[in-house]
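Encode chain A's predicted structure.
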Amino acid sequence: MKTSVPPPAESEENYWPLDSSSTPRFAGPVSFFRLPTLHNPEDVDIALVGLPWDGGTTNRPGARHGPRDIRTMSTLIRPFHHVTRTSPYELCRVADFGDAPINPVNIDDTLERVEGFYDKLHRTGVTPLSAGGDHLATLPILRAIAKDGPVGLIQFDAHSDTNDSYFGGHRYTHGTHVRREIEEGLIDPKRTIQIGIRGTRYQPDGDDFGVQQGIRTIYIEEFFQLGTEGVLKEIRRILGSGPTYLSFDVDGLDPSFAPGTGTPEVGGYSTFQAQEMIRGLAGLDIVGGDVVEVSPPFDPSGNTALIGATMMFEILCVMAEAKARRMAKADPRSGP
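Encoded structure for chain A:
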């Protein structure tokens, strides 16, 4: 059985977190997973980005503070996965890429700024993994990385986010982004699956738009019937081998685990079940991802931010594997 394994020495190619057995977690700069903070996209394969913005929130705010607290709690995450015994930092150059530019008082301006930021990453071939922020932030990210064609979407969430508008015609909120993504051709609804949907709704047919478009919706009752293995089979059936974006809204979890979120819904899955599902995505072509709706003011314990950091690391592990496969395929020197 493997015991504590120190990471390899940092090379010119890959970056490693500060070693918390040498530099205390409460000391030194704060960054995602204690990685270096860089600004040149040519220096990274995977960019960890903060989106400190909750301008699309319709009720409880505070997700703008999510990235900072997720960074702080990510100091608890060690570099090697305890199940696979591997590290994403062995596979790819991963670094904190700072925060995307936002405008806290103007939604349209923020959408443009965020899209421009991620477009620069996408044109350089960088895969983004982001910490929100409210769920509207997924829209401008996909506007950047789905320019070449629609991608599949795996969405862990209590809500379908397929409403058309709020408050007299406002079309851009955290509850409308999936509808906009379908309308703009950014995601393929027939390669989209939503896991954990539940809760009361505004109309009896509140989620029918997504179903009509072909989205595979797994309500929480079906989740518990299928179990994580059954859900993973459905995910693989729906997504296949095509490019896929992964979006994890922490309100998909039961609020007993993650109370620090804007729209909690009781009766969700556990943190371990979420980890099992993310780990089971290994082998899929993950081209981007995010963890959203962490609202630290509603959880002074910091547990929800720790969950956000942990889910980011789980996503990073499967994302790094996918990125490494794409890089090997694109490099003729990599052999058969």
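The chain is about 30% helix and 15% strand.
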